[in-house]
Design a protein that fits this description.
Length: 153
């Protein structure tokens, strides 16, 4: 739907990232033409069967305006999740911003676990082993690709 409200009042530069398996940060900037009293509110729908839920822990700027949100216990379950940021002002109608995001594309993976290096004195070289990183959604460890950078000191 077309968002009613004053042009330039919707948020800009909306971005989310998932880290430490189940934490998600979303951030945005106030619309460049939004009135000074504009406050923004983020809603997230984790799946089409869940209700939209409002942010529980807003990140605020120095003027007390919501410019981000922290989510805990995030689960990557569906193909796409829905995000909506609307705003309110006593001066004018504020345009909303919405976006569908594939959460697996915004996850920062933890490092591989239990990295070990065993080197022999003969020319057999070294054996490096590790376990797959922890993640909220990858069930098949064959999905991971690794790159080893060896630097001689």
């Amino acid at each position: 739907p077309v968002s009613a409200g004053m042009n330039g009042s919707a948020i800009e530069n909306f971005s989310c990232v998932i880290y430490n398996i189940s934490l998600m940060n979303c951030t945005w900037q106030a619309g460049k033409d939004a009135p000074g009293d504009t406050q923004y509110f983020l809603y997230w729908q984790n799946s089409r069967y869940d209700d939209e839920m409002e942010c529980e822990l807003y990140i605020k700027d120095e003027n007390g305006r919501n410019t981000g949100c922290r989510f805990q216990n995030v689960r990557i379950e569906t193909e796409k999740d829905y995000f909506l940021v609307n705003g309110s002002s006593k001066d004018s109608l504020i345009q909303f911003y919405d976006e569908y995001i594939q959460l697996y594309k915004i996850e920062i993976l933890t490092p591989p676990l239990n990295v070990t290096v065993n080197c022999t004195r003969d020319s057999a070289g070294c054996i490096i082993t590790w376990q797959a990183p922890l993640t909220s959604h990858v069930e098949n460890v064959k999905c991971f690709q690794y790159e080893i950078s060896i630097q001689n000191k």
